[in-house]
Structure formats: C-alpha cells, structure tokens
Amino acid sequence: MKVTPLLIASMTDGIVEGDENIEITGFAKIEEAKPGEISFIANPKYAHFLTSTKASVLLVGRDLPKPEDRPCPTLVRVDDPYVAVANLLAAFESQKPKPQGIEQPSFVADGVEIPEGAYVGAFAYIGHGVKLGRNVKIYPQAYVGDGVVIGDESVIRPGVRIYEGCSIGRRCIIHSGAVIGADGFGFAPLPDGSYEKIAQIGNVVIEDDVEIGANTTVDRATFGSTRVGRGTKLDNLIQIAHNVELGENNVFAAQTGVAGSTRIGSRNRVGGQCGFAGHIRIGDENEFGAQSGIPGNVGDRRRLIGYPAVDIIRFARTQVYLGRLSELFKK
C-alpha cells in the first residue's frame, strides 16, 4: 500500500497543505528525518524545524503558523499531532504479521485450551487451569502460573513471570522482565529480633488496557487483591507493593514506588522516582513532579513536587530563597 499525505489526512481527519501524493517511506524524529519520511510538531517551541527539517511531510496543529518567506515540507494539519501520530503508529503496527500457534519446546498443561489466533512461544510455560482469551500472545520464556486468566488480545512479552492465581484483563501489554504476583513484603518481628514470613495468599488483578513496563513488579496481596485499574500505564522499573489499589487511567514514570495498602485514584500523573508511603489515600487528577516524596494523604487536582511534596508554586519560591542563602548570610 502506497502511503501518501492524502492517505494520512484521511486517517487523521486532517487537511493537506502541499503535495498530496508524495510517497512516505517511514516515520522519523524531526531532527533526523530524511526525504521521504514523515515527522510531527506537537509543541510550538519546535516550530523552527518547519524550515530546517529534511522530512518530506509534517503533522502539525491546525493553527501552527506557516512561514511565508521560506519553503517548508508538505503539512498535514490535525487537531492534535501527538494523538494523530499515536493512532498512525498503532495502525501501521497492526499491519505487521502476528505470530500464531504453539512453538516447541514449550509446556502447556493438560486441559488448557489455546484459543483462536493465540501464540505460545518457545520455552514458555503455561500452568494448570490457565485460561487464555482470543489472540493472546505469550512470547518465549514467559511463565504463566496455575490458574492465571489472561483476557483477549493481551500481549505477554519474553521473560514475563505471572504467578499463580493472577488475572490479566483484555488488551494489556506486559513487557519483558515484569513480575506479576510475587509475594508482598510481609514479615512479623519476633522477640529475638528475627522476622517470620507472613503468607501472601491474595493475588493481583490487572484490568483492561493496562500497560506494564520492563522489570516492573506488582506484588500479590496478603489477602484480597492488589489491583491496577483500567487504562493505567506503568513505566519500567516500578514497584507496586501488596494490597495497593490503583484507579483508572493513571500514568506512572520509571522508578516510582508505591508502598503497601496505599490507594491511588484515577487520572493521576506521576513523575519518575516518586515515592508513596504506605496506607495513604491519593485522590484524582493530581500531578506529582519527579522525585517527589508523598508521606500522607492527598486530595484531588493538586500539583505537588519535592520531599515532602508541596504545592509546586510554594516549591518554586523555596528554590528561589535557597539560591539567595549565601547572599543573606553575608548580610
């Protein structure tokens, strides 16, 4: 199929300014793009690339000014370039052939049904009582423990470990090295100073449309369920402790940790290396800057940063004052 600006516009509800029939050979970063490739400008601060990029086609916002005195590539104007690119990449990715069937050597326990369109890669392990949905893809060296349920269209990348009894929703993606359902960190102190392990008999429930990054861990509950809500996205190297409950459509950047029994609402955005104390409650639609420490409850629609996390305006003022400390000491 020949990909042209006209086709891109039809897929993104866009308008073409320039040559509608240039053949597009691929996507590229705007500063690295070559003739024949398409890129995008989502932030106006990159508008200078309109005249310096070598890309043949750019996805841009409908109101981004076009220079009158210098030539620029063919433009496809859309409502939101970032969303348009995401949708285009998903559409082209879906055209790639998908693996199917059972590769050998692998282990599939007796009685487990491999449904239509599913794939089990070499050296994968599928335990007793596992239930797989349609078009599930389980890549090589993945471990799916006894009684695990995986919903339709979900993808389990190489080397993922899903412990027994856990539940994965539909259209989830779990990346390599992730561990779902390892024991929560529960130990009872004894009089002699040693610790006795507390059995972790719960599970992990991952709802629909969740993506979990490489080497992220979600621990099973002591009892009940550790839960990751629908549409939530977890980056790489994140720790979600036992009995944590995450709401819907949250985004967590890398190296964040959430301690046990904390409940976080929906539509929160969490920067990298944040730390949430245990047994606290976080509301909805908050933003937490990178490396924030959150020791207590937070309501709704706050913008916090720092340790302990404070309002972002207060934090900025404090940084100004700190920068003037040497001057104040001299006085």
Give a short synopsis of this structure.
With 331 residues, the chain is of the alpha/beta class.
What shape does the CA trace take? flat
Helical proportion, percent range: 10-25%
Q: What structural category do the secondary elements indicate?
A: alpha/beta
Strand percent estimate: 25-35%
Q: Using DSSP, what is the number of strands?
A: 37
Structural account:
- Helix content is 13%, strand content 27%.
- The chain is built from 5 helices and 37 strands.
- A 12-stranded mixed beta sheet has the order 6-8-11-14-17-22-25-28-31-34-36-37. Strands 7-9-12-15-18-23-26-29-32-35 form a 10-stranded parallel beta sheet, with no helix packed on it. The protein has an 8-stranded parallel beta sheet with strand order 10-13-16-21-24-27-30-33, with no helix packed on it.
- Strand 3, helix 2 and strand 4 (57-61) form a beta-alpha-beta unit.
- It is flat.
Structure keywords:
single chain; 331 residues; alpha/beta; twelve-stranded mixed sheet; ten-stranded parallel sheet; 5 helices; 37 strands; 13% helix; flat
Topology (elements, then pairings):
Blueprint lengths: L4 H8 L2 E3 L8 E2 L9 E4 L8 H4 L4 E5 L12 E5 L2 H13 L7 E2 L4 E2 L10 E2 L4 E2 L4 E2 L4 E2 L4 E2 L4 E2 L4 E2 L4 E2 L4 E2 L4 E2 L4 E2 L6 E3 L5 E3 L5 E4 L4 E2 L4 E2 L6 E4 L4 E2 L4 E2 L4 E2 L4 E2 L4 E2 L4 E2 L4 E2 L4 E2 L4 E2 L4 E2 L4 E2 L8 E3 L4 E2 H12 L1 H6 L1
Parallel strand pairs: 2-3, 3-4, 4-5, 6-8, 7-9, 8-11, 9-12, 10-13, 11-14, 12-15, 13-16, 14-17, 15-18, 16-21, 17-22, 18-23, 21-24, 22-25, 23-26, 24-27, 25-28, 26-29, 27-30, 28-31, 29-32, 30-33, 31-34, 32-35, 34-36
Antiparallel strand pairs: 1-5, 19-20, 36-37
